Amino acid sequence: MRVAILTDNDFGKVNGVTTTLKAVLRYAPPDLKLRIFTACREETDTPGYRALPARGMPIPCYREMEVFWPGRRRLRSEVQRFDPGVLHLTTPGPIGLAALHIQRALQLPMVGSFHTDLAAYAHLLTGSRAAGRLMAGFLRWPYGKCAHVLAPSEATRQLLLGGRRRAADSVSIWRRGVDTTAFAPAFRSEALRASWGVTDERPALLYVGRVSREKGLDLLAPLTRALTGAGHAHRLVVVGEGPYLEELRALLPDAVFTGVLGGHALAAAYASADVFVFPSATDTAGNVVLEAQSSGVPVLVTDKGGPQENLEPDCSGLVLAAGDVQAWIAATGQLVREFAWRRTLGHGARAYAERRSWQEALAPLYGWYRLLAAQSPRVSSGDAWLTVPPHSRLQPSSAPASWAGALRS
Fold this sequence. Notes:
Oligomer: single chain
Structural class: alpha/beta
CATH topology of the largest domain: Rossmann fold
Helix content: 25-40%
Number of strands: 16
CATH architecture of the largest domain: 3-Layer(aba) Sandwich
CATH class of the largest domain: Alpha Beta
């Protein structure tokens, strides 16, 4: 069975979507033949990944990142040549919108996966609630064409449902996993720690991810100032790039900024840290939270969004109130002071990550591929909500309504 996965995240980008899609390809069972279709500056053509060359355009409020506009007819031709039985929409950008055209043309069932709360990002980056509402309304369009939508966490699922119980079967959970061989305590590097200027008495606080305001990074400067003022020696290490980078450098002159890391360098950075700090209240999943725990590092996350569902509270990390600077200072200060507690939570973090395999995490997605492929004859996209097999728990008559109130900011 063939599935065409359409995404605006080409593999040149480093984020949770690309990490997840690479795992989708890597762990695909023998009965599924998957191929990702995207666009970027450089053309790539492999059995599992097809990137068409296209012109890029900077994203508003985030000019460091581009989306690419492929030729719609060529993309459709490439997908048609692959001859899929199911489409998978992963993003609402130009490629995602092209997926709607392909769905209409080929009359294929389509599953959607929701990865990024763009409505919250639009609100936070512009300071305009109207911008958030506009983005929420836009997102209802492509995802409303999907036979089913998969969310990475229960918090995100509730966001998408808009609190409407009658539509509960229209969105289900597809959680994330982690490769515990790629991220492990064994990659800890004393040489790297020395280059950072950290020791057991001066622990490393690590952040990995996009360096942008929507990640809650305004908390880092007051956090480190308070720790320093209280006499708690530490070093903040920031891995990643983004539009907030230069301002954050100015606010944190004593921090280490590594830029984007990947492969062994990223694994070593995780394992060489002592505490992972992730103050985002907008993330739907937070793959980096699982990667840090797999590296044997305790994690601090907020009580908003999906990351809080990707740890074992008080065993592998702590869940703290979003935006409560004093709570973060108190918890981080205690971890900085108490080596034994850090070590205990670190052991718990690794044990938790070992129960979050990609194979298990991906089972719901592969199951939906098979379910939609086994459906009744193809129908037009206008009736896409009627394409689910009769034995499915979905209720076609109520499914579109779930998106009428979804993603309200």
